[in-house]
Amino acid sequence: MNKTLRQFMIFLFVILITLGVLFILFPQFLLIVFMLFELMAILLSVYILFKRTDVTSIKIAWILTLYCVPIVGVFLYLFVGRSQLKSTIIQKEEQKKLLHYVQGLKTIDLEHQSLLERKNERLSGKKVLGGNHFDVLTDGQETFEAIFSELNEAKEHIHLFYFIIKEDELADKLRKTLIQKAQEGVNVRFAVDGLGSVKLSDTYLESLKAAGMEVAVFNPIRSFYHFSRANWRNHRKVIVIDGKVGFTGGLNIGNEYLGITSKFSHWRDSHLKISGPLVMQLQETFLYDWLYMKNLAGSANEFMAKTYFPTSVVGNDEGQVIYGGPYDQERVVRDVLFNLIDSAKVKISIASPYFVPDDEMLELLRRTARNGIKVDIIIPGKGDRKLSYYGNDFYLEALISAGIHVYKYDDTAFLHCKVMIVDDEIATIGSTNFDIRSFDINHEVSAILYNGEAVQKLATDFTNDLQKSKRITGNDLLKRSLWQKIKGRICGLFAPLL
To answer: What is the pTM of this model?
Structure first.
């Protein structure tokens, strides 16, 4: 067990034992404690109500938590709900140097741009780049075969960041491969999220360091002091090899992403392999986080070299990589999705494992469907987390009443891909779920693909997924039991916190 988890379990055990003894010896103590927490819950609710940074649904979720379970709610909010992620002066300066260097690199600009491409460039600050080749990887087997094939060909550097790495056979294969490449002289930089990969052992990380790799953890939770930032996570999945090949998408590292799990018959996911100039934007995404994690003056200097940002033309695909998180004033990833939805002329296809949109996104989708544009949404038929799964149901009535077609995927499998296709001409694929956490709390990355065979492949995959899904109708909603309706309502209110 991770050291931080052990500390937390010991702390929780001591608190429970202490409270139990006090309740036995002093029965009136229970009433005093409850009244104290009720008062704290009221004060925190007022504070949350007047905060400008949180969206309304998150505020409602926190206030309901404080009201319904004041003792648990107060502890949760004090530990994980208060502080937002802030960069130090050093981090900001190093990141600014990197961005200035990347923006100054010469790229082959597109001769003709659509209005949407120009809008997305202005909104995100990232150019739409041509000269790429995209490969859509439809499942874990195909994804990891491609990843390990490219890792084995690395000559200069490997940059890898994952939200979750589960310490199993697949993770061990990754460790051995990276150690082998490091011993061959390849510069390997390895990073994980501090909460998503909290169970990754010190032994695993130390073996990488011993092989000469640089290892970093995003917002590590090493003590109770760090719990105040536990809510602000980096959900990205990024690999960059020699600056020429990159991977991003929905798959983390673990056996379950290969479908090796007793809980699901199949794990349906999508990933993207990028070759060509667009890899530079994926490289920027990784290094932007790396400079934040390192927090050292001058740490950007070594990366301002063509070695890390080659721009060789390899194909005809056009795209851009956008990333964002709570350190940004604007919600870039969400806003680009708004642009894409608003651009639809015929249809929109969305697949997401966690569908908990904020009010603006929900109303945009409803208005789009009411305008006569076909909107299809696939969500899991079986969830990996009950609160998120039943939280999806909270939005079914609002979606279906606007004419949106909602489908539940095979109820023995799990749908985890994060994909949107607009008019079978433009697509997004990355780490971004269609939920409030991805829009407002997590650090996310998404690739926007403009036309090309990769978009058609994603559209074909979506059609195949529809064939394995069941459409939810208004009659189905009426047939739900009272308990199912209650679960959906309750989970929908609290889902924005997860």
So the answer is: 0.86
For 195-241, write each residue's pLDDT tens digit: 899 899 999 999 999 999 999 999 887 665 556 667 778 999 999 99
Catalytic residues: 235, 237, 242, 416, 418, 423
Q: Which residues have CB under 8 Å from 29's CB, separation 6+?
A: 22, 23
Confidence tier at 390 by pLDDT (50, 70, 90)? low
Q: Which residue has the tokens 């409030």?
A: 436
Q: List the structure tokens of 154.
A: 């690395």
**pLDDT of amino acid 1:** 46
Question: What is the tens place of the pLDDT at every residue in 145-204?
Answer: 999 999 999 999 999 999 999 999 999 999 999 999 999 999 999 999 998 998 999 999
Q: Domain 332-497 falls in which CATH fold?
A: Endonuclease; Chain A (3.30.870)
Question: What is residue 225's predicted lDDT score, i.e. its pLDDT?
Answer: 56
- HEC string of the chain equals CCHHHHHHHHHHHHHHHHHHHHHHHCCHHHHHHHHHHHHHHHHHHHHHHCCCCCCHHHHHHHHHHHHHCHHHHHHHHHHHHCCCCCCCHHHHHHHHHHHHHHHCCCCCCCCCCCHHHHHHHHHHCCCCEEEEEEEEECCHHHHHHHHHHHHHCCCCEEEEEECCECCCHHHHHHHHHHHHHHHCCCEEEEEEECCCCCCCCHHHHHHHHHCCCEEEEECCCCCHHHHHHCCCCECCEEEEECCCEEEEECCCECHHHHCCCCCCCCEECCEEEEECCCHHHHHHHHHHHHHHHHCCCCCCHHHCCCCCCCCCCCCCEEEEEEEECCCCCCCHHHHHHHHHHHCCCCEEEEECCCEECCHHHHHHHHHHHHCCCEEEEEECCCCCCHHHHHHHHCCHHHHHHCCCEEEEECCCCEECCCEEEECCCEEEEECCCEEHHHHHHCEEEEEEEECCHHHHHHHHHHHHHHHCEEEECHHHHHHCCHHHHHHHHHHHHHHHHC
CATH of segment(s) 89-113+133-315:
3.30.870.10
For the segment 277-300, the average pLDDT, to the nearest whole number, is: 96
- Start and end residues for every CATH 3.30.870.10 domain found in the chain: 89-113+133-315, 332-497
**Spatial separation of the C-alpha atoms in residues 292 and 287, rounded to whole Å:** 8
